[in-house]
Amino acid sequence: MQATGEPQGPAPTTPFSAVHVSGGAQLPPRLLKVIARMIHAPAGSPDRSFVRRVEVYGPGSESALVRASSGDLVPASPGRKAGFYLFVLHGRFVCGSCSGPANAKPPHGTIETSVWSPVVGGTDFGLTNRLPAAMSRLHRLAVIVPTEPRL
Fold first, then answer.
1. In a domain, 77, yes or no
2. Quick one: what percent of the chain has pLDDT higher than 90?
3. Is 100 left (phi over 0), alpha (psi -120 to 50) or beta?
4. Does any domain span residue 8?
């Protein structure tokens, strides 16, 4: 499944009750804004009904983050070797905008993954109920807890 660009809609003014960043690193403001828009989707959005926390991995290459999060292979290209982040949202998710066979229920899961960069935007998206073991080898940059989960 592919997702492009940045989530739409205004970012809330106080989107997170807790941000735990590894090693005292700073998260870029634009990165926090993208995460806030992902967590606080517009009212009535069927895709994100409940987000408990977001883990942020990176920065790294697009191909390494996609391979670790989904097992998919993305050819390494010159402009995509650095500066990408992997967002892992934990909660309950339904992809109402995903295509599938007629009369089939939309994909759903308890984990949503998204690869993003400030230059390219969103590149890869997935829904699952369990993360691959390869995720344990990535550098987790931060854990973010939303102010109030959407029910």
1. yes
2. 19
3. beta
4. no
Tell me the residue range of the domain where 103 lies.
16-146
Residue 2 lies in a domain: no
Alpha-carbon 42 to chain mean position:
16
Whether residue 127 is contained in a domain is answered as yes
- In angstroms, rounded to a whole number, what is the distance separating the alpha carbons of residues 74 and 149? 33
Rounded CA separation 65/80 (Å): 11
Contact indicator for 41, 89 with CB cutoff of 8 Å: no
pLDDT tens readout for residues 71-98? 887 777 776 778 899 999 998 888 877 8
Overall domain count for the chain:
1
Alpha helices, DSSP H, located in 58-144: 62-70
Geometric angle at alpha carbon 78, from 72 and 82, rounded to 5°: 70
